[in-house]
Amino acid sequence: MAAANGNVFTPTDKTSPTNPCPPAVVPNDVYDKFRKLLSDLLGSKAGVVSDIDSQVKGKVPDDKEKPVSIEIEVVTKDQFKTQYANDVDKLYPDKTADQLKNDAENFFNANAAYTYITDNLDANGVQKIKIKVFCKDSLRTATIDKSPLLESLIHELVHAKLYTMLVLGLTDADLPFLDHADKFFGEIKRLFDLLKKNLELSFSLPFENSNFFLVELGEDHPSDGVVSLDHQVTAIFETQSVLGNEITFKWINPSKEIVRTEIKPLELMAQDTFVPNSPGHWTVVAESLHMRAVVASFDVPFSVIPESPIGIIVLMASSLAALGGFMALRRSKGTTDW
Q1: pTM score over 0.85
Q2: CATH number at residue 275
């Protein structure tokens, strides 16, 4: 497949013409569609590669500019474990091959794709960068829906953009932003919008379609933002994105203390349940390395007015009894000037 390679940022499609994934995981026709979408993304009409190339050249001094090889490939877990261990063993001399393979397995399990700097040098003595897309269910579902796949690939290209600057001599302090910072996600959106405009696409960025809401115990609709004390509430996160497979929920009490942190598996939806035990304003945060954090909040009132007529009668009776007792006490002391 032809790709629009810039002078410095040079991603290349190294995917196999035949499907390397088990057909039960990624059918052959889906794999072919994946390769077509990848070709469209790397093509000159999309404008993504040339845009990134211009940005890299704008940051890297002229005397340090060299083409950086960025190879994109689809791999199985076993392939990735072997390739990753061979690609980075000189970068991590304190780790054994088995330890590197274990790292690779963790990366595979936690991500839809992974980008890294290798210890392999090209003809110009520049370290190669590799983008590995994984043979997983996420590849099938993302390709079928198209926009999640393009989001995932652009996400990896933004990683590759930063790594290109690093291998050409820039430091972290020189980078326009760091991995998974707010500006990182802003860059994904900017490039996604550029792709949509140039290829005349109509769908939106998947992580922009995420939903985060609260549901109280016994209810079948989102909370109105008021939760009773000691009443169970569930935070629910929904997304069309396939980036990552886990999300962290943090529950923050009115004193701004994190009282619960839970990591939950994410397969387009994740949820966590908590019982607020103090009145005031509560906040729930759902965050992932691959997406911007989202926030929901609710208030726990200091007192609850009973809803049933019997409850109201009991409340009124107790109030009148208290008032009667207070009046009797005042009179027993001979005071009437109240």
Answers
A1: no
A2: 2.60.40.1930
The answer to the question of residue 59 being in a domain is yes
**In sequence order, what are the beta bridge partners of 157?**
none
Per the domain annotation, does 161 fall within a domain?
yes
Query: Among residues 185, 205, 225, which one ends one of the domains?
Result: 205
Alpha-carbon distance of 4 to 21, in angstroms, equals 26
Structure tokens at 162: 């930063």
Residue 118 sits in the same domain as residue 263: no
Contacts of 159 (CB under 8 A, 6+ apart): 115, 131, 179
Pair 57, 148 in one domain: yes
Indicate whether 129 and 228 sit together in one domain. no
Query: By C-alpha distance, which of 279, 278, 244, 273 is closest to 260?
Result: 273
pLDDT in tens, the chain (338 residues): 333 445 899 999 999 999 999 999 999 999 999 999 999 999 999 999 999 999 999 999 999 999 999 999 999 999 999 999 999 999 999 999 999 999 999 999 988 999 999 999 988 899 999 999 999 998 998 898 888 899 899 999 999 999 999 999 999 999 999 988 889 988 998 999 999 999 988 766 555 557 889 999 888 888 889 998 889 999 998 876 655 567 889 999 999 999 999 988 887 788 999 999 999 999 999 887 666 678 899 999 986 545 444 444 443 444 444 334 433 433 333 433 33
Q: How far apart are CA 198 and CA 282, in angstroms?
A: 43
